[in-house]
Design goal:
171 residues; alpha/beta; 10 helices; 11% strand; globular
């Protein structure tokens, strides 16, 4: 069975923008909570963002599944304790409910929660490096994706440089 990845909106959008999402959904089981669907598809389509239509197409083709969270108490606990946004919070709760394998998040608060709860997480950058290491994408594809993340994402230059170095086999 494929690994289950639960994604928040920012990482889902970034993966779509760099054209890695289409590759990942063929290799992993992608799940998103309802709020992430609202943020990425409904709100995005209202603003005519092309990635919103592409993400919606993946949902229609069952490559990404939408799941409703059940534990409203956990949802409220996380929002009250950490001040996370609804989409990120639902993604964390869904990850815990599904006992998923990876949480896809680039959100700073979510990453801190992952560290606290010992939740395995990956950012859009680490998905690129991991995809290269698994031989799912080529070095040239990886470099282009990382360079695009430098444009679309809010990454510090040193993180972009470190990811590019990983593709070259440097630590």
């Amino acid at each position: 069975m494929n690994s289950i990845i639960v994604s928040d909106a920012s990482t889902l959008i970034l993966l779509q923008k760099i054209e890695l999402l289409g590759i990942l959904v063929k290799n992993f089981e992608f799940m998103i909570p309802e709020e992430v669907y609202r943020e990425t598809v409904l709100k995005g389509k209202a603003k005519k963002f092309s990635d919103s239509y592409q993400i919606e197409n993946k949902i229609k083709n069952s490559l990404i599944k939408i799941k409703k969270i059940k534990d409203k108490n956990k949802f409220n606990e996380i929002i009250n304790e950490f001040g996370t946004a609804e989409g990120e919070t639902e993604a964390i709760v869904l990850f815990l409910e599904l006992k998923a394998d990876i949480l896809a998040s680039d959100d700073h608060k979510s990453i801190n929660i992952c560290k606290l709860y010992k939740i395995p997480f990956m950012t859009a950058l680490t998905f690129v490096v991991d995809s290269f290491n698994r031989k799912i994408i080529s070095k040239d594809e990886g470099k282009k994706m990382i360079e695009n993340l430098g444009v679309y994402g809010r990454y510090k230059d040193e993180l972009i440089y470190k990811a590019l170095s990983c593709l070259e086999g440097k630590k």
